[in-house]
């Protein structure tokens, strides 16, 4: 048996030498330490632990696939039967639910069968094995395709009863793929284009790790990312953003299948989508192949995949022309099969048309037997990697330790000590600059820490000074240059975060431009992807750029979003404290709203207290009964503190509270909340340079909120604060009116 220090979390890295259907038996290696989390990934791992470069550049980019079979293929009769099994599992599940999208699974069954049965490397009994090939169904509405594949391949997460409970309460087969519900599903898809963007992030992660850790005598990182995208994905702007980057980065292990069926919800795509997709992807730097017969051209599909894998210097788009709803006599090739059950009569007609005599949800015995081999083969693939990693760890112990941290999510001991600390005597600075100090400190201490900005690194202050850029020729770099592609940036970071638990990606832009990436940020929260969003220029305090760049409603909007932490730190200690939480909360994304203007290092703030979300910065009262409580965030905490001093000069007892993160405060005990905001004290004033919406929850019905409830203006920051009433005088006056 290999060394017990050798890791096997649920992710292992497999040798390129093993063929897609081949296997070798090796002794297993004890598992890596698992994440302390209640996510499906962590739950699965805990239960398992307890149980114990040729460029191909001379060919034309767009061409039909040459008919050339891959290594070992199944006889066509059994393939037909297997493909129809996939189709009818989807048909039956949608029919039983009276809801869903049968058309895509019926059309994409051939390509997906070949992928899952003949090409992809995975272990069904360990969905989180590190060196598995990743599959992303970007056209997530067709999720019964993926559930059928997982069921046939032997994943315990999708049993027959799960197929029968498709789209029902508590089901492991929800209406769109959800990584947090169904082991075997890599990312959460549904909003079109998000999936291919996640796939770019997954492929980026593989290329980065391979560059950092592979050795001439041991290619320990080696896997592919596959995705199926539809016409709807192609129409979404995010797809162009991320595919442009994929081409620029030369992600040769990204292979996307374009389900070219010419149908969308409103009808034939000719009504709104007539561009030449092939030429567009050529221009984006992709290799393009066309499979003309996606309905039963199995050898064409195999040949296309083989060609795609031979092209190592660029991603590949395989356009597969299919018939949506293939096999349905009256609904195939029409929008009516896209998003509704076929209906009892049409299901029967389809069974007759395809010669399918089996009962609903029945998998023929020969198909079941054929697919059952993936369980022992997958275990052998993972065991092979475990042995390979043991040799790697022995020969390259330092690199192995870093890779183990990324694979397992276990942070290096004492990593948090790298974060800078500040005193009131430390020089004042903009929190965006203080953030840069934290980012660079974390990059030295945390192996999986990487990220970048949407063409604003010099303004967001997000450059990692000790690292180079991630580029095609230098993929080991940890600075990601996203260009002006905010939406794509966020979604790519989701893919990176979901590749391995120890990846901690951050991305940055001006806070107001979260409007461009909100869909990706919402998916971060939903899919439990712990991306860190570094958002600078957080208020009217940015000054002269004016209302187009001044966020107003943004803080409130993210406070309203489930499972996301909205931080607005006031100084260096609070900024470091926010990063400490963001790094440790791997299942929750974080947003840091940071100032452009210089702020002082305040007395009373601390890294540790940020964990409370809201805490007392200063207080001259006794018995938890101040005359008034002043509450501030970010740059306005200084104003609250100054107002508190003015009121104390007049003999008032004043508590000043920093409310750096509402979500963390909500997690505290009732006793702690009462110690900060005693229910008997109704005289409360909040001040924040953003909308007052939501502050009633904090100040209560008798309190007052000072903020900005209109768009901003173009002027120096000081002038804006005065004109909008974000001043010490305003806080003092409000407090006196309440006392």
Automatic annotation (TrEMBL):
Family note:
Belongs to the transketolase family.
Q: Which InterPro entries match?
A: THDP-binding, Transketo_C/PFOR_II, Transketolase-like_C_2, Transketolase-like_Pyr-bd, Transketolase_bac-like, Transketolase_BS, Transketolase_CS, Transketolase_fam
Q: Please, one GO biological process term?
A: pentose-phosphate shunt
Q: Name one GO molecular function term.
A: transketolase activity
- EC main class here is transferase
So what EC number does this one have?
A: 2.2.1.1
Listed cofactors: Co(2+); thiamine diphosphate; Mg(2+)
List cellular component terms (GO): chloroplast stroma; cytosol
**Keyword Magnesium set for record:** yes
* Cited Pfam families: Transket_pyr, Transketolase_C_1, Transketolase_N
What is the name attached to this protein's record? transketolase
Question: What reaction does this catalyse?
Answer: D-sedoheptulose 7-phosphate + D-glyceraldehyde 3-phosphate = aldehydo-D-ribose 5-phosphate + D-xylulose 5-phosphate
- Detail which positions bind Mg(2+): 231, 261, 263
Which residues does the UniProt record annotate as the domain Transketolase-like pyrimidine-binding?
429-601
Q: Where does thiamine diphosphate bind?
A: 141, 190-192, 232, 261, 338, 513
Keyword annotations of the record: Magnesium, Metal-binding, Thiamine pyrophosphate, Transferase
